[in-house]
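On clarity, I found the account of how folds are encoded harder to follow than it need be. What matters is that the chain and its backbone geometry are given together, residue for residue. The format is easy to grasp once an entry is in front of the reader. For illustration, here is how one protein appears when written out as sequence plus structure tokens.
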Amino acid sequence: MDCVFCNKFKEKTPVFENELALAYYDEFPVNKGHMLFITKRHIETFFDTSIEEQNAIFELVRKAKIDLDNLYHPDGYNIGLNCNESAGQSVMHIHLHLIPRYKGDVKNPRGGVRGVIPKNKDY
């Protein structure tokens, strides 16, 4: 299979792991502590995962949040999933982003994930 995540991550030790999912630090972090969560089974989007795989991912997210709180003391978090190319997905293997946020990391964080369409961020 020619999947970047399937090929690359089988060579690396995960930060967290359970029966169905893996967690790694993002190789191109947008902030200190940025992590990725992927399924062990090759699946394209979140909507293709089983409820068990979804639960496995979020189990690792909860563990990672505790760890990141202790390591980096962020002021908040963004959790993101890009599903399909039109939503910005560039690697076609489900991956959830957990991005720690810090006061002052952007001028005005209001709107958070609404910023994926900048002209509609403010309301």
